[in-house]
Design goal:
224 residues, alpha/beta, five-stranded parallel sheet, four-stranded antiparallel sheet, 40% helix, 23% strand
């Protein structure tokens, strides 16, 4: 059974979210503060954590960021009323895997949590290295030949997924399943757009190769 921790200081919302996730088949625990959440995660862990951004004892983004730096890989979804682009970007930069703005539909929350759990799978190494490229998951940083690359959250997610399967062809559908939320259209060209931008930022020699009719492959050498 999927274990979900809900961290929300609004009691009514906390109870409602807990009830909805439980109806969806999850084993749900709940906390009203970062301190309580930290104690629960230390004692039992979770397959996914749903955090309200602003809690009585601090901003959950800072807490998640600190844990990411220590190698914590549990999927995180932020619930928040802070809906500016800067707020959303800050959430992802601190290690969020998904972001849902209040008010929201409970059905969407359940779907997003389920998607995060499916994507979570086995924990990846904190740092991926291939050729002269280094990807630091907890810090959400990518460096090539020691130079920091300014990747967006989607570019980072796509690169991380491809690097975790070196030499393997990864379909566009798989990339959408693992790197986009449930609203993404699998028939659109969003993957191709992100890969094109990613290639430009990675520079030569090329690391992300097109596999005709199948998708993309990460390989330091074109023929590998």
């Amino acid at each position: 059974m999927t274990r979900v921790l809900v961290v929300e200081d609004d009691e009514n919302l906390r109870l409602a979210v807990t009830a909805e996730l439980t109806r969806g088949g999850a084993d749900v625990r709940a906390a009203g503060s970062l301190a309580a959440a930290d104690a629960m995660l230390t004692s039992g862990g979770a397959d996914c954590v749903v955090f309200d951004r602003m809690l009585p004892d601090g901003d959950a983004a800072g807490y998640v960021g600190r844990r990411r730096q220590g190698g914590w890989t549990t999927p995180v979804l932020f619930l928040t009323a802070r809906d500016t682009v800067a707020d959303v970007v800050a959430g992802f930069e601190h290690g969020a895997d998904d972001y849902l703005v209040k008010p929201f539909a409970m059905a969407e929350l359940v779907a997003r949590v389920g998607n995060l759990v499916r994507r979570g799978g086995a924990a990846r190494p904190a740092v991926l290295r291939q050729a002269d490229l280094e990807l630091n998951g907890p810090r959400r940083q990518a460096r090539r030949a020691g130079v920091l690359l300014g990747l967006t959250a989607k570019e980072f997610a796509v690169l991380e997924h491809l690097m975790s399967r070196p030499g393997q062809a990864v379909s566009r559908t798989e990339l959408i399943d693992h790197c986009w939320d449930t609203s993404a259209d699998p028939m659109s060209n969003v993957v191709d757009v992100v890969v094109r931008r990613l290639r430009a930022k990675l520079g030569p020699p090329e690391l992300v190769h097109t596999v005709r009719g199948r998708g993309y492959r990460f390989a330091p050498e074109a023929g590998s």
